[in-house]
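Task card 7
Instruction: Convert sequence to structure tokens.
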Amino acid sequence: MTDYKVLNEKLNSGEYVGTYGGAYSLYRCLAEIRKNKDILKYNELKDTEYLNENLLKHLNNEETRKKWNDICSINPLGLTSKIPTMACTTATLNIPELKDKLFKDGVIIDSDGGLNVTKIAVQYTWNLEKLSKKIGMRENELRNAIFKATNNKKVFDENYNIFLPNIGGMTVYIIGDIKKVLDPQAEISVRVHDECNGSDVFGTDICTCRPYLTYAIKCATECAQRNGVGIIVYFRKEGRALDEIIKYRVYNARKRQKGGDCSSTYFQHTENIAGERDVRIQELMPEVLVWLGIDRIDWLLSMSREKYDALVCSGIKIMQRIPLPDKYIPKNAEVEINAKISDGYHSVQWDNKELIKKLQKIETTRQRATTIYEMGLRNELHHFQINLDKLPVAVEYTINVIEKNYPNLKIPQHSRIRHFEKFDPKFIENFRNSFMCSEKEKIRRLIDLTVMSVLTDAGAGNWRYIKHNKVYTRSEGLAYASYDMFMSGIFSSDKACPFRINSLGIEQLSLEDFSEGFQITEDNQLFGLENRYRVIKRLGGCLKGFPRHFGHEIKRSGNLLDYIEEKFGKEITINQFWKILCNTFGFIWSTNQKTIGCRGDVFVYSPLKKEQEVGSDLIPFHKLLHWLMNSLIEPLEMYGIKFTNKEVMLALPEYRNGGLLIDIGLIDLKDPTYYEKIHNVGSELIVEWRALTLVLIEKIKDGINEYYKNDGVKLTMSQVLQGGTWSAGRAIAMEKRNTTDPPIKIRSDGTIF
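Output:
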């Protein structure tokens, strides 16, 4: 079969059917007659032409070329072919919608806002042998189809297996250093965009094409500025490759139907007029990315189910999909976007109140995590495999850790307070004795401290906190810093009453004071510091927005104690408490997180998608909210509040618990190279890891309780986390890898842990 090198040789020697120049070839033919010259010979590559050296070096890398023989629709050597089918140049883009919205770094973004890119024009070259196999068509059928479109009998000559179609090609825009594609530590952002002249150029608002394109360019640029690379592929497939005439006829039919334009008939009109609603051959779409050596996309800016499936089937791993945020959707385009979502396009729309309620339920998290686990048992997960034969080993290892740390099995709650005890073993006693006030006020103050400390507890990286000549890192360091800030009174609006965190005090809190509290210097940076600051600022808005829960006069977290006592007395179920936290503190997290486009620790897992069910592919973790619930139960129980139905509480899907599963061999990555790469918190690999953690930690808990059954001991999930799995995760990390770092590298944004 013709490989890419032979294909290029045949092109150079003239062994092909069709014409160079694609859609413009007929203009050239007419010009040849008018000017009386052979224009084609002028197209040959000149020695004087500038070629992008970085791009050529990248394309000459064997790592880039490893899958080139799978390519059948373009000539991988087209940049350096005798008569090129590709051309490359550098350019500066000026996009009005992005003016002053991107950081002017002087490299990717100029001081005047211009975006520097490398762009590559590509014409199609079809390898008929390989093309027929890729699209599932016999070669003679393919040749007959081409003949029907071209009336060129030469296509039946089997000596000619290269066809140059006279259709529009594509343009690739590369933002950042192309070599980053081969760097396992670098992020890759991709938008595959199909031409929509009316929107892209002229700004019509009946569709979302230009808004999505500009949003994708923004995301790709930000990715490049984070030391990654952003890629925009612009295909000339107007009107889903049906052409603009068909598209305009469909527009007319939609607008003139009885009742006006509506989502339910959106695709039907196209089928009525064109016979098919979409004639793009998506199997060929990924080939330009394969040509660039891309085998992983961290950020896919596409809602299309067909494009996603084509990319995955080509062997490209999709780590995370980013839909177009609602604020970018023109009002007149709502018909189109709703039709696409109903048809299975990816979305994280949150305008459905019932969906929001569903995603806030503990049981929804458990059910969807269980579904992912069951997929793993069937070996259907993209990234992980489950080795259940290691479950007894995990149970035994965790029991050994429990008995080492708590030989009497008197295990406290897994709570933020345990981190305070790292710098003060008698923290609770000393904290309560340090104040001359009522017992109720002491508990309020402990709640204030706990809430703030939990909300700032996310991955810390190499950051450190120094106190009394001792160095504290990670969660313990963050806990100490939050305690010192609380005791300093920087969160209180009244310096005469410093030991509280109230809404007005948070309003007055500056980023400078917050940074100083965490001992931030040039050499001591904390991941996501500004994001943590924004979370605390939103806590202030939350306290202010729910006076029934947090007080009408002095609005503070501690007043939650009064609300619970007044409404529920001395007994409350876990489900009731969880609902309170969701309905109040749940509003702290942003609705515009880049990772997902929706609120909080909720992420997409595409294989969960059910047709015509918006939100079916979302899995809610709400880890920090669960961590907050675990941590608040303890001070509330100190006051005498009894919590029932604790068996519904979930494990915490974070890297200590998840790391135990990997290090002990209970789960493992199918592709070991992904241990060396850095992953965003919302990537589908991390989603799989976290979902499996939730289910398998429960199974470890069941195994532990089975072991202690005859002793009359039954540990809660909180006790198993504190006494066993969390500590076991840290212990085995030191044994296996001599580090407390997670076995999988994660990019933290300071809000998701």
